[in-house]
Backbone:
């Protein structure tokens, strides 16, 4: 690694931001910290889907399935044995799920690995399919995963879900995992391996005659993406402390897809911006569903209004600014400096 | 038999290749051998089966009959990427670059096939990865210079003019370190002046990189100047072969290109 | 399982299969022409069901009138969706249109939640549908004959339009080659609008019968039938109307029969259709009656 100005600035920014977050409890309220954690988790999810879809061009609608696997694996890993035995009332919990008890970071990595391995078994058959057929097949697999989770009661507690998951994902932990995801994906996407993935996205035939084993790299990208989706799922489960199979439906995939499309397909910094903006917007829109007091008039909340606005925003983005906030460009130091020097002049 | 068509010193040999689609025979019983270091051309009028030949040689189709050998090894039934690893790099009739990627990045895609490091060395940021990454960049930049694109390294491929995109595609193919370049209609969409320049460029590349080149071309004039040996196809079969002058004066070839009347009227 | 029981299941499967078939036709027609999975199609079913619910329940219209009005309104909605969400994206990458379709689907659902509330509402089944013929132990409700009957009539009507009329000819031409058809002077956008209208009308018809068969309406009632009908369309070979009908019937029979013969699998019921989808895509991606599309190099 060459240590130039930009690398230094990046490291410094990461460190300063980390220190601010470390001290955040002093100036942020519980609700703000809750949102901030959600933002970092959503960033992880958005980055992972962007690798699969934005960089490699694999239209995957199965992200919720991988997130679910991650959330369940981690939850089972970090729940104490006694608590698990108490909660599994439909059927007693099966070995080895009953006896596993690991530190949080092991649980998160394990969640990622499980999701990645699962993705591998899905990838080998379905990645032979092209765009929207691939989308439907991955969507089908995500639904199948959900049905399996409902029915694997001895391991997952079935439709009751898991409650009281220990909240190990503090703000700083979420930040570190998001950073870990970003660094690894940035290295992958902005090395020659990233060039290959983008070449596969743009023209599979050209990639194959340039000596690239297209199928191999598609599987790779799909599995690495699923790995990070699993990590995001693990943090999400611990953050929410309750998970059940209904949470991981198509709406979750759709949300992540929104982050990526809004930020720009094929832009990592775009995904970060997209996840941040949309997460805040979604929280902000909750106000629409609560009674509003404008001083002179009391408006009743409208249940469901949040999703109406949300889908209109997505429609507007896709119709008016198809490439999202960043397009395929990245927010780099050079761009930032250029922006400021232009405005000074 | 001409030296260029001799099997012993040949880099690419096709023997009795037949390719059928349902009831249609697109290529029937095609045999030829390209000598090491030579520039050969496969020509023919529209519908002669040239594109099928390209697809068979590059590995997109597996012929029903016949054998294809590259550098003495059988490549029939191999995947395109395996054939590329063995030393053949094709370019396409319709340019297939990644328009949003820069010139340098496009060439680097071609460098990948000779890379030693694996993907996880990139993910983990191992020292060997950074070294190799810099080597690939240097190699790609050097190739860009060879094709006169060193001034446009940071520009996106889509913003280049047509002729420059052609050269970029050739540079990307050269980055795979091929022994044989397979060019499918490289002069398609070019005016005569540009075609002549391109052919001169192809000759230069051959000398510089010590390559063999097989051109698949519709336009007979384009290949005459640069090819040392020519095979002519019509309706999927070979109708003539030989040195450019022999082919030019072959009545069968003239009839294939210009139709029956020309001969009778002449 | 007794023979009467088996026949009973057959009637159930035929009803469900007919409904899937009607919905699947809309998917297959739109995909055949635009290569677009119209995600909002299932929601049109829901809208159709709500229209009939309000027509008969709130305004007290007779069933026939309410049904026809509901079908017409849903047809118009289909045309409107195409105009707003798909037509501006005709030249865009296909994935953009697909995301637009997903957004449209969420939009319709969430508007339905706002307007109709998320509560499921029971539908009053008219007596002439719940009456049944009794053959020994076998009890066939009029509904079980009504649904396949209406389906046959509608499918015949559609096949007539597609194969015997000028707009139908234009539709078939567009699905082969949209640009050439445009050059031949066909108003392509109008024909596409007609396609959306016809498909949506059929979906609304299915929605009405769905509401009668499983007597309730709710904003997300179209999601699962929509997905499964899409699977039926893929199974039969997307782009082919006959294939969609065949696929719908097959999916209906598989769902009913698998649970009938193996009750212990009933909690996996929703997974069957998806499993079929994956298997079909892996073995024969073009479906049973689909045309093979060669990728051009």
Residues:
């Amino acid at each position: 690694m060459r240590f130039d100005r930009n690398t230094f600035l990046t490291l410094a920014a990461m460190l300063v931001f980390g220190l601010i977050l470390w001290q955040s409890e002093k100036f942020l309220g519980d609700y703000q910290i809750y949102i901030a954690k959600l933002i970092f988790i959503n960033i992880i999810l958005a980055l992972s889907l962007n690798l699969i879809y934005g960089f490699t061009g694999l239209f995957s609608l199965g992200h919720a399935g991988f997130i679910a696997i991650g959330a369940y694996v981690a939850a089972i890993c970090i729940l104490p044995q006694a608590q698990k035995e108490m909660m599994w009332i439909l059927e007693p919990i099966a070995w080895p799920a009953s006896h596993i008890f690991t530190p949080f970071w092991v649980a998160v990595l394990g969640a990622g690995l499980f999701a990645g391995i699962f993705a591998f078994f899905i990838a080998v058959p379905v990645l032979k399919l092209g765009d929207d057929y691939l989308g439907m097949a991955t969507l089908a697999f995500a639904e199948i995963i959900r049905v399996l989770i409902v029915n694997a009661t001895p391991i997952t507690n079935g439709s009751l879900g898991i409650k009281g998951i220990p909240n190990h994902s503090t703000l700083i932990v979420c930040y570190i995992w998001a950073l870990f995801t970003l660094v690894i994906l940035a290295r992958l996407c902005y090395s020659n391996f990233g060039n290959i993935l983008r070449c596969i996205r743009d023209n599979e035939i050209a990639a194959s005659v340039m000596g690239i084993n297209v199928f191999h790299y598609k599987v790779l990208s799909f599995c690495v993406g699923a790995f990070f989706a699993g990590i995001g799922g693990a943090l999400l489960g611990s953050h929410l402390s309750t998970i059940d199979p209904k949470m991981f439906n198509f709406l979750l995939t759709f949300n992540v897809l929104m982050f990526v499309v809004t930020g720009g397909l094929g832009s990592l910094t775009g995904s970060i911006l997209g996840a941040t903006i949309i997460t805040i917007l979604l929280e902000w829109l909750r106000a629409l569903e609560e009674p509003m007091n404008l001083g002179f008039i009391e408006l009743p909340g409208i249940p469901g209004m949040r999703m109406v606005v949300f889908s209109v925003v997505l429609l507007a983005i896709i119709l008016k600014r198809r490439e999202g906030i960043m397009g395929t460009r990245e927010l780099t130091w050079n761009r930032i400096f250029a922006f400021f020097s232009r405005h000074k002049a | 038999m001409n030296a260029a068509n001799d099997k012993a010193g040949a880099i690419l040999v096709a023997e009795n290749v037949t390719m059928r689609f349902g009831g249609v025979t697109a290529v029937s019983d095609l045999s030829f051998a390209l000598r090491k270091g030579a520039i050969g051309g496969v020509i023919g009028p529209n519908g002669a089966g040239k594109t099928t030949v390209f697809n068979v040689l590059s590995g997109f189709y597996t012929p029903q009959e016949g054998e294809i050998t590259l550098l003495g090894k059988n490549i029939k039934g191999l995947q395109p990427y395996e054939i590329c690893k063995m030393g053949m790099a094709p370019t396409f009739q319709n340019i297939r670059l990644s328009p949003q990627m820069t010139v340098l990045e496009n060439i680097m895609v071609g460098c990948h096939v000779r890379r030693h490091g694996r993907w996880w060395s990139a993910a983990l940021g191992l020292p060997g990865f950074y070294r190799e990454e810099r080597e690939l960049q240097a190699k790609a930049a050097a190739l860009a210079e060879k094709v006169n694109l060193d001034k446009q390294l940071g520009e996106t491929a889509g913003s280049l003019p047509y002729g420059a995109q052609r050269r970029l595609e050739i540079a990307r193919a050269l980055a795979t370190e091929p022994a044989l370049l397979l060019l499918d209609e490289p002069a398609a969409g070019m005016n005569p002046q540009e075609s002549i320049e391109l052919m001169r460029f192809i000759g230069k590349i051959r000398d510089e990189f010590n390559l063999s080149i097989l051109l698949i071309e519709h336009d007979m004039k384009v290949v005459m100047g640069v090819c040392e040996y020519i095979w002519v196809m019509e309706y999927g079969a070979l109708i003539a072969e030989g040195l450019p002058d022999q082919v030019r004066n072959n009545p069968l070839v003239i009839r294939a290109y210009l139709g029956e009347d020309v001969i009778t009227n002449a | 399982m007794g023979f009467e029981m088996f026949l009973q299941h057959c009637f159930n499967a035929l009803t469900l299969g007919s409904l899937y078939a009607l919905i699947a036709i809309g998917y297959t027609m739109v995909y055949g022409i635009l290569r677009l999975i119209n995600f909002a199609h299932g929601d049109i079913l829901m809208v159709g069901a709500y229209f009939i619910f309000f027509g008969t329940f709130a305004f007290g219209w007779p069933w026939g009138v309410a049904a026809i009005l509901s079908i017409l309104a849903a047809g118009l909605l289909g045309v409107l969706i195409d105009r707003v969400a798909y037509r501006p994206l005709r030249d865009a990458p296909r994935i953009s249109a697909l995301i637009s379709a997903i957004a449209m689907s969420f939009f319709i659902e969430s508007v339905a939640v706002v307007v109709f509330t998320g509560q499921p509402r029971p539908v009053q089944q008219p007596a002439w549908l719940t009456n049944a013929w009794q053959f020994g132990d076998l009890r066939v409700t009029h509904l079980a004959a009504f649904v396949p009957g209406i389906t046959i009539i509608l499918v015949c009507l559609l096949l007539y339009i597609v194969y015997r009329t000028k707009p139908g000819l234009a539709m078939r031409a567009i699905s082969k080659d949209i640009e050439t058809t445009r050059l031949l002077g066909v108003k392509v956008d109008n024909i596409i609008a007609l396609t959306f209208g016809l498909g949506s009308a059929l979906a609304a018809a299915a929605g009405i019968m769905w509401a009668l068969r499983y007597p309730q309406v709710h904003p997300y009632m179209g999601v699962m039938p929509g997905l499964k009908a899409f699977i039926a369309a893929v199974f039969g070979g997307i782009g082919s109307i006959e294939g969609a009908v065949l696929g719908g019937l097959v999916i209906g029979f598989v769902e009913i029969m698998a649970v009938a013969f193996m009750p212990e699998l009933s909690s996996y019921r929703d997974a069957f259709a998806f499993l079929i989808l994956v298997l079909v895509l892996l073995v024969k991606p073009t479906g049973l009656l689909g045309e093979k599309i060669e990728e051009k190099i």
In short: Chain B is about 40% helix and 25% strand. The interface with chain C takes residues 51, 55, 60 of chain B (CB under 8 Å).
